[in-house]
Amino acid sequence: MSRVDPARSHEFADEGASLVLLHPGDVTDAELAGHLVALLFAAAGPLAPAEAARLLEIAPDHLHAVCDLLEREPPPGLALQRFADRLQLTTAACSTPVIERYLGSPPPVRLSRAALEALAVIAYRGPATRGEIDAIRGVNSDSAVATLLGRNLVAEVGRKETPGRPALLAITPDCLQYLGLRSFEELPPLPAVEPPGQVSSPPTT
User: Fold this and answer.
1) Does position 54 have pLDDT exceeding 80, yes or no?
2) CATH number where 47 lies
3) Which of 36, 42, 84, 144 sits a CA distance of 20 to 30 A from 136?
4) How, if at all, do strands 78-83 and 86-91 pair?
């Protein structure tokens, strides 16, 4: 349970004003989660976590706890999507068929095998440079990366402090939306890879 600082209570300075904003008193995390949903619903776009914390009058660390609660107990039909610099509401994956019936099912965004491989490298190893993507895939990835950049599935997020200062690429919030994920934590784990030269034991009968 969080306590709103009494010093932050507000009231109209005009003595003739009849409307007074009363101090809300103790506010539970569940109530704060409801306020966050209302903010994200009313916002024209995603909110920065710092801005959401300011509007809720709570510390940034407390906002993380409220977001955790909202992820565990989302509003019906909705989900909280969290990214490093933004929070936004998105429709729940289970509601996709209903939304598609309303909007009309859009044509699927198809990616080539090369683009999917490059996207996987960036998602799991990112931020990654084009050279690192090429090294892992074993082939040139310029065309695949250009496709991902053009569809805003990846973006440049900085430069690596090595000779030539190559661009660092990372997946975007649009990519999370494309994959149907709410955060990086929902990426499935990579399969275990056996060391080279190790032969798996045959299955027992």
Assistant:
1) yes
2) 1.10.10.10
3) 84
4) antiparallel
Kindly state whether residue 205 falls inside one of the protein's structural domains: no
H or E element in which residue 70 lies: helix 60-72
Q: What CA–CA distance (Å, rounded) separates 170 from 29?
A: 32
Residue 63 lies in a domain: yes
Q: How far is Cα 150 from Cα 177, in angstroms, rounded to an integer?
A: 16
**Taking a C-beta distance cutoff of 8 angstroms, is the pair 157, 168 a contact?**
yes
135-148: b or e for each residue (b if 16 or more CB lie within 10 Å)? ebeeeebeebbebb
pLDDT of 106: 60
| Upper half-sphere CA count for residue 167 (Cβ side, 13 Å) | 12
CB count, 10 Å around CB of 34?
A: 15
* Opening angle at CA 116, ends 111 and 121, nearest 5: 155
Given 3-state DSSP classes, what are the helix, strand and coil percentages for the chain, each rounded to the nearest 5? 45, 15, 40
Q: Which structural domain, as residue segments, surrounds residue 48?
A: 24-94
User: What pTM was computed for the model?
Assistant: 0.54
CB 58 within 8 A of CB 65: no
The amino acid sitting at 188 is P
Please report, for residues 43, 187, 189, the alpha-carbon distance to residue 124 in angstroms, rounded to integers and kept in the order given. 31, 8, 9
